[in-house]
């Protein structure tokens, strides 16, 4: 005889029911994080989507498209030659939240010292697209703190301490469709390394077609989107 469906099982089933290609999301405005989370004992890279009212939704990176709208167009200042030629136009998702554009960050808030031993390594492996990609934070004394810069070669790696929630400037040199491949890795308490490689679709400029995919594994929405600190050390 079939066992009755408990409230907990019903909630899990409802979460899994959303895992269909029709659930693909194009994210254009609001708060999102590229986040690390432990699922079934393995590190996972997931998108924490806080762009809508209510609890954030966890999504697979391949199931979303980050849309960098034309509202994100800026001119490179003379002080930022690492982004290209001063006076040229680029598209930049801002470090500080601004209406009309996506506010993209990263976090390791879902991980504890009991789950992983030490920080998370976050690596940009490859950029497939029409231009260069740079992710940087504004330094305390005005000097940029560059996490990733495809123009001078990849991979680039950043060490992100546990408990980090940070934001930066995501800069794209040309309009078009990009695919950013990232790897997050960490060491488990037993000494083994766990890692996850995911590719994030990004469309710069014109309104994109949603990318087929599905939300991530079930779990609570976690806390709201709070303030963040520095993103750790890079290399």
From TrEMBL:
InterPro entries: CHP03773_ABC_transptr-like (IPR022395), Surface-anchored_actinobac (IPR022435). Keywords: Signal. Residues 192-201 have a biased composition (Polar residues). Residues 219-235 have a biased composition (Gly residues). Residues 209-218 have a biased composition (Pro residues). It comes from the Bacteria. Residues 1-24 form the signal peptide. Residues 190-235 are annotated as: Disordered. This is TIGR03773 family transporter-associated surface protein.
């Amino acid at each position: 005889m079939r066992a009755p469906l408990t409230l907990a099982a019903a909630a899990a089933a409802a979460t899994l029911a959303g895992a269909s290609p029709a659930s693909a999301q194009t994210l254009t405005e609001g708060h999102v994080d590229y986040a690390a989370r432990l699922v079934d004992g393995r590190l996972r890279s997931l998108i924490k989507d806080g762009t809508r009212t209510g609890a954030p939704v966890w999504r697979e990176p391949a199931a979303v498209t980050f849309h960098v709208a034309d509202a994100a167009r800026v001119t490179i200042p003379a002080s930022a030659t690492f982004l290209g030629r001063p006076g040229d136009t680029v598209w930049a998702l801002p470090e500080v939240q601004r209406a009309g554009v996506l506010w993209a960050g990263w976090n390791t808030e879902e991980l504890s010292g009991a789950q992983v031993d030490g920080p998370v390594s976050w690596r940009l492996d490859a950029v497939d697209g029409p231009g260069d990609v740079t992710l940087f934070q504004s330094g305390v004394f005005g000097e940029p703190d560059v996490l990733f810069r495809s123009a001078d070669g990849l991979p680039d790696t950043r060490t992100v301490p546990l408990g980090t929630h940070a934001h930066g400037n995501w800069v794209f040199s040309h309009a078009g469709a990009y695919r950013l491949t990232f790897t997050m890795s960490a060491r488990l308490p037993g000494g083994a390394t766990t890692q996850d490689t995911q590719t994030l679709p990004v469309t710069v400029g014109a309104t994109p077609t949603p990318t087929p995919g599905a939300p991530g594994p079930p779990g609570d929405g976690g806390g709201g989107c709070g303030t963040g600190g520095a993103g750790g050390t890079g290399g």
